[in-house]
Amino acid sequence: MRIDIITVLPEMIQGSFETSILNRAQKKGLAEVHLHQLRDYSNDKWKRVDDYPFGGEAGMVMKVEPIDNVITALKKERTYDEVIYTSPDGETFNQAIANELSLYKNIIILCGHYKGIDYRIREHLITREISIGDYVLTGGELAAAVIADAVVRLIPGAIGDAESALSDTFQDDLLAPPVYTRPADYKGWKVPEILLSGHEAKINQWKMEQSLERTQRLRPDLLKK
Ligand code: ADE
Q: What is the pLDDT of residues 147-165, one digit of tens each?
């Protein structure tokens, strides 16, 4: 899978792809993340990518031309399954969307900034708008990093234990059961007996009950789905 991220602040995202799982997935050839500095696509002699809004509102708006230039250049090289714009008014990101995106071959993520992007970009170039939650960030970079992280770890082989992504919290609209490691008794804080029993069927039953109980208690909205 290839993810092209268009941003005015590539350094804000770079770090997250140079560490741990995302870096390993790239080294294994499972994912490629390319960052594109939007300013490099500005025809303006000062490399400006924003301008004052028509109609006189406060704040700056990202211009059409540099964004069209970079998206057009990328599309000349390959076909994209989705051109995503990160925006607080998009659909709210969740595990189901992450699963869907992880099946794609090529996606573009455009990070918004300032007051937003010229609406014509959204009308003519963007195929999907995604928000990572009902709050406003200073720009779309952290949202793009969140989306790329959640998606890349789902690519088969990206995380060590093949089963581990399937048993994630949210994967079946249930929160994950509690997990423990050694020692079995720490200062009298004990690991549930059942996990030490070696009885696989009973352990699985316990995990399912725990998942249901935690979901019921902490996120009853997930069960209503
Ligand atoms: N840009 C600013 N806020 C955002 C959010 N909540 N999600 C995605 N992109 C954003």
A: 999 999 999 888 876 557 7
